[in-house]
Design goal:
Layout: E1 3-7, H1 11-23, E2 27-31, H2 34-37, E3 47-51, H3 59-68, E4 75-80, H4 85-93, E5 96-101, H5 106-118
Parallel strand pairs: 1-2, 1-3, 3-4, 4-5
């Protein structure tokens, strides 16, 4: 069981991921944007599913802020519908472990979470 942080401005996406991940035995925390996510108790060794395009604070801004604050980063799986190659590069530079495109299949998300949990921490 892992602590999974779902940071996405879509309530439907958060609900879907929370439901599926809890069925897999994970503890799930949610935030609707990067600013709200800063209040979460991030712990290295866990996973953050992070949307790129969100109001108030984007996913990239959140990653940058967490690094600036010296907070330990969980393994980050970026989820987005509109990101291009520049976003992928920036996400990797900021410590993202992987990148999935929306719409996504929940089996793919679960497989990716399992993969990054088995890999070395990125932070």
């Amino acid at each position: 069981m892992a602590r999974i942080f779902v940071v996405d401005d879509s309530r439907e996406v958060r609900f879907l991921l929370r439901t599926v991940l809890q069925m897999e035995g994970h503890e799930v925390f949610e935030a609707g944007d990067g600013a709200e996510a800063l209040e979460l108790p991030f712990v290295a060794g866990d996973v953050m599913l992070l949307d790129v395009m969100m109001p108030r604070m984007t996913g990239m801004e959140l990653l940058s802020e967490l690094r600036t604050r010296g907070r330990p980063l969980p393994r980050v799986v970026v989820l987005t519908a509109k990101a291009g190659e520049a976003d992928r590069k920036q996400a990797k530079e900021l410590g993202a472990a992987s990148f999935l495109t929306k719409p996504f299949d929940t089996d793919t998300v679960i497989a990716e979470i399992n993969r990054v949990l088995e890999s070395s921490p990125t932070a």
